[in-house]
Amino acid sequence: MIEVAPVDIDALERVVRIHNVVRPDDPSTVESFVDWKRQADEMVWLLATADGEDLGAAVGVVGWHSPPQTSRVHAWTLPQARGRGAGTKLYEELTRWSATRGCSEMDTEVDQGDDASLAWAERRGFREVARDSSLVLDLEHVEAPSVEPPAGIEIVTWAERPGIDRELYEVYAEAEPDIPGEEHNELPPFVQWLSSDMHGISDRPEAVFVAVAGDEVVGYAKLAFPQHGTRVFHDLTGVKRAWRRRGIASALKRAQIAWAKANGYTQLVTSNDERNEPILRLNTRHGYRAEPGSIVLRRAVSGDA
C-alpha cells in the first residue's frame, strides 16, 4: 500500500535524492530546498513510500511568486516506481494541502516534448496556461561584449552601491507586474522581498548589475547561482517604465555576459514566458539559443484529485 506523508528536514535528503534522479538536468541540494522554504509563505515536502521503499516525492509552495490563492506543486516519481499510483497519491495530497491553505487553483509544470507527462496531467484536470522558453548562451564560444551603456547611464553593481536597497525595490515593483505571467502575483513588502529575493543562498551582490542615471536607480539585472557547476542563471531584469526603450536592458545584459565569462562560467541560462517578446528578442540578439522549455499547467483545487 502506498503511503504519502509530509517530512521534516531530517528526511529532506530523501526528497532531494528523488528529485535529482528524476531531474538530473536540474540538480538541487538540501540547502537549496531549505532556502526555498524560507522564501515562501508556506511549503510542504512529501514522500511516497510502500513497504519502506521510497517511490516518489513532491513539494507544494504557497506565496512564492504566484498569484493569490494559487499554489505551485511539483511531483517526481522514480523510474522503477512508475505505473504504481505514487504520482496520483502525491497529487491527491498536494490538492488537499493546497485546499487547506485557502488555494482555489494549483500550478505545475512539465517539460516541452514530454507528451506522456502532459497527457497524465491533462487526465487529472490540468490545462495549459503558459509556455516558458529556455534560452542558453555558450560563454566559451562568444567574445566578452563591451557594456557601452546609453548616454547618461552608468552600470555599477549592488556591491559597489550597498545603500540602494529601496531604490532596487522600486524598480522591482514597477517591473514585476509588467512581466507576462507575473501580472497577477502579489508583490511582497520591501523587507520580505529583500530577504527572499535578494539574500538567498543563490544571490551575490557583486552579480546584481544596476543602471543609474545621476542619483536615480533606473534598472537592474540579477544573476542567480547554483551551489555546484559552471552554469549561472538569469533572474529578474527590470527597468523603470519611464526609462524603457533606451537600450538600458541591453547594457545590463552585456554587463552580465562579460562578468560571467570573466569569472569562469561556461553557460548563461534564462527562462522566459513566450509572451514576453521584448526579452526574447533581447536574448536572441545577444546570441542565446533555444532549448526545450516548460509548459505551465493549472487546475482547480477541488475534492477530486
Description of the structure:
The structure is a single chain. With 305 residues, the chain is of the alpha+beta class. It has two domains: 3-131 and 295-300, Gcn5-related N-acetyltransferase (GNAT) (Aminopeptidase); 143-286, 3-Layer(aba) Sandwich (Aminopeptidase). Helices cover 29% and strands 32% of the residues. The chain contains eight helices and twelve strands. Strands 1-2-3-4-5-12-6-11-10-9-8-7 form a twelve-stranded mixed sheet, sandwiched between helices. β3 and β4 form a beta hairpin. The longest helix is centred in the N-terminal third of the chain and has 15 residues, at 86-100. The model has no long low-confidence stretch (mean pLDDT 93).
Summarize the structure.
This protein is of the alpha+beta class and 305 residues long.
- Alpha carbon gyration radius: 20 Å
Largest sheet: 12 strands, mixed
Q: What separation lies between the terminal Cα atoms?
A: 18 Å
Q: What shape does the CA trace take?
A: globular
- Indicate the mean pLDDT: 93
- The percent range for strand residues is 25-35%
- What's the number of helices? 8
Provide the succession of SSEs. EHHEEEHEHEEHHEEEHEHE
CATH class of the largest domain: Alpha Beta
In CATH terms, the superfamily of the largest domain is: Gcn5-related N-acetyltransferase (GNAT)
Low-pLDDT segments: none
CATH topology of the largest domain: Aminopeptidase
> How is the largest sheet built, in terms of strand order?
1-2-3-4-5-12-6-11-10-9-8-7
Structural class: alpha+beta
Quantity of strands, as a count: 12
